[in-house]
Amino acid sequence: MSNKLAILGGSAVRTKPFCGWPVFGEAEERRLMGALRSGKWGKLDGDEVAEFERRFAAMHGCKHAIGVVNGTVSLRIALMAAGIPAGSEVIVPPYTFLATATAVVEANAVPVFADIDLETFNLSPAAVEAAITPKTRAIMPVHMGGQPAEMDALMVIARQHNLVIIEDAAHAHAALYRQRPAGSIGQLGSFSFQSSKNLTCGEGGIVTTNDDRLAEACRSIHNCGRITGGLWYEHHVMSANYRLGEFQGAVLNAQLDRLEEQTNTRDRNGQHLAARLSKIPGLHPQRRTAETTRHSYHLFLLRIDAQVFGTPRTAVLRALQAEGIPICGGYAVPLYRQPLFRNKAFGPYLSNTGPALDYTAVRCPNCETICAEQGAWLEQSLFLGTSADMDDIAQAFEKVYEHRNALGKVQL
Ligand SMILES: Cc1ncc(COP(=O)(O)O)c(C=O)c1O
To answer: Distance, CA 395 to ligand 1 centroid (Å)?
Structure first.
C-alpha cells in the first residue's frame, strides 16, 4: 500500500464500504405486511404503535410513551403539555439540530442559548445556571451524539429554580446515564425516529414521561385535543393530528428488537476508536463522563486542535475523506448564528417579545470554537461494523497526522 496521502495521489487506507443504514430484514417485512393486510393503518385502529409505545415505555422504566409524527413535534408537545407559558424562557444548547430551539419558538416561548462544555459537547450546567432569569421555565438538554448530558447537576438546578426538564434524546436511544435510560430522567423525554437515527422508521418521534397528568396532556395534544371518555368531535386544547402511523409502528417494533445489540456494538467500537484517536496529538474525542454507562454513538464527536495537530481541520477532513473515511465537520455555526435567529424570522410566533430578544449579541465561546475550528463527526452506522473497521479509521488518522506537513500542498 502506498504511504502517500490519497489526497495527493496515494492509495486510500479504506476502500471497502462501511456498514450501511438502515439495517432491516424479514422481521420488518413481516410486520409491515401484517399491518398492510390488517387494513388498520391508523394508530387509533391498529396494534403496532400501541405495542411499540408499551415496549418503548417499559424499556425506559417510564409509565408512558406517546408515538408522534417526528422528533420536532414531540419536543413541542412536551413543552405544551408542561404548560410553558407564552413568552417565557427555555434554556437550550446552541450545538444541536435546529429543532431543539425551533420547537421552543413553536410553543411560543423564547429559546435562550447556554454554552456547551468543550470536552463533552453537552450543555454546561454552569452556563445554564448563569442563563436563568425570572422568566425561565424549562431546560432542554440534548444528549449530544448519544452521550447523556450532565443530568444530576441539571436536575439540581431545575429543582432549585422550579424548572421543568425536557430531555431531547433524539440522539440517545438506549443510552444509559448511571444505568438509567436517557429520556427517562427529566419530567419528559423526546426521541426522533427520522431516517438517520439509531432507531428509525423513516419519520417518527415519541414523548416519554412517568407523570400521568403530563402523559394525558401529551395524548390529548397529539390527538386533536380529544380526552379519554370524550366524544370524537370534542376538542379541549390547542392541538392537531400528530399521531404516528401503523406502518411506522410496524417498522419500529422490528427495529427495536435489534437496538440492544446494535447499541452495545456501537458503544464497544466507539470506545475502541476513542482510545486509539486519543493517542494522536491534537485529537480529542468527546470526553466520556463517569456517569455514561452506555453511549449510543449516534455520532462519534471529536475535536481537532489544529495548533497541536499541525494543520487546519478542513485539510484534515479532506485528507481523511480521500482515505475513504466518511467524516464531516458537523454543525458549521451555533444555532443563534443561523439567519432564522439573527433575523428573528419567527413568523407569527413570539411577535410580542420585542427588542429584548437579540440573538446577534449571544456568545457561546465553546460552541463557536467547535463549529468554526475543531468539530468533526463520524456517523453511527460506521460503528455497527467490526473493530477492524475502527482500526482502519484510526490508521487513516495516523497516516494523515504522519503526513500533516504535506497537507500544505492541498488546495482547499
Ligand atoms: C437533537 C435533535 N433534536 C430534534 C430533532 C428533530 O427530529 P425530527 O427530524 O424527527 O423532527 C433532531 C433530528 O435530527 C435532532 O438531531
So the answer is: 32
